[in-house]
Amino acid sequence: MHLKSLISTTLLLIISLSTAWGAIPLGYYSNMEGKTTADLKTAAFQDIKTHTSLSYANMWTYFPQTDYLPSAPTEIWDMYSNNIVFFSDHSSIDKEHCVPNSWWGGPTVDNEYAYGDLMNLYPANNSINRSKGNNPLSEVGTTTAAGNNGVSKSGTSITLGYTGNGFEPADEYKGDFARTYFYMATCYQNYTTWLSDNTGQYEIIGGVYPSFQPWAIPLLMKWSRMDPVSEKEIERNETVYKLQNNRNPFIDYPQLAEYIWGNMKDSAWSFAKQISTAVPNTQKPKLSITPNPAKDIIHFCSGKTAGNFRYIIYSMTGSVVLSGETENSSIRVSDLKSGIYNCVVEADSEKLVGKVFIGD
Question: Which of 79, 145, 228, 346 could crosslink 173 through cysteines, CB 3.0-4.6 Å?
Fold first, then answer.
């Protein structure tokens, strides 16, 4: 069973490559200092709105970098089901907009940034995804015929204030979904195409503040508190930042949601009082790979006096391209094509799962 609560515990034992992590760029959130509620949200919008436009069609190029299981890099980390699916055969997996794209107008020229925004796109089991449809997040009572796979549920909402059909993720992913919704309501608050009707189905209604249906805010805040930011979210946030050049501030600063919609609405934001989840660049792993990026040879380095290094290197489609053991801590990679590879290295009791960048 691939549940975040179990894998996050495993992640604490795995030391990632230093290139997979990074500090928040100096001044990145400079607009937020001293702001409150609506002004704070708009300041965050100004900080994250400008980013690279990614193609929705290319998501299967990106997912192997953002949504792989750390313990099994060839497998897809699907928050919608527990099915074991490999990147090499992902026909049962959809490229899912967590916040339904129909809510803001779909794939139009004006909305291309939102449509291909990797912060809002996840691999999702296509059966439960079809059951989810464009229903909002909510707590679910009676489920539809195909709406309960033991992880996610679709069916009749029991959330106070909304009586339509809803979608409820597993407890260990509720915070992930809430923080994605916070991000989308902030990053695209300037879109004028957000839908709204008297049923309350469209959970995000756009605009500067509060941007959500009234019933949605208590629910999302509840989920954000019950499921804190995980290692999965932190590493994914860093990887997406490398790909599209913006960040999810609600992952970097989990307290931010409280200052905008929650218990700290009357307090001005101060970075001096906050703790960031981003891992400083100065943090050095005990087990590492150098150089990275590499061209001809990579070296395995350990904080201990290690014996043999055991390694497996995977392509981004999940194929094993190199594997074996080395006594001299070095292997030749000059035969590999330029690109990004997943690498698993073990030495004594240390284990590293991360990415290797091969250049010309």
Answer: 79
Number of domains in the chain: 2
Q: H helices then E strands: how many in the chain?
A: 10, 14
Same domain, 55 and 144: yes
Q: Is the CB of residue 54 less than 8 Å from the CB of residue 97? A: no
Answer yes or no: are the C-beta atoms of 7 and 176 closer than 8 Å: no
Whether 52 and 58 have beta carbons less than 8 Å apart is answered as no
Instruction: Kindly report the backbone phi and psi dihedral angles of residue 176, in degrees, each rounded to the nearest multiple of 5, phi listed first.
Output: -60, -45
pTM for the full predicted model: 0.81
Residues 217-271 pLDDT 10s: 999 999 999 999 998 999 999 999 999 999 999 999 999 999 999 999 989 999 9
308 and 217 in a single domain? The answer is: no
Q: Which residue has the tokens 């970075």?
A: 271
The secondary structure element, H or E, covering residue 46 is helix 37-48
Between CA 185 and CA 99 the distance in angstroms is 9
Domain that includes residue 227, residue range: 4-13+24-273
DSSP three-state, residue 279: coil
The residue type of 338 is S
Whether 185 contacts 119, CB under 8 Å: no
DSSP label of 86: B
Specify which residues 124 forms β-bridges with.
94
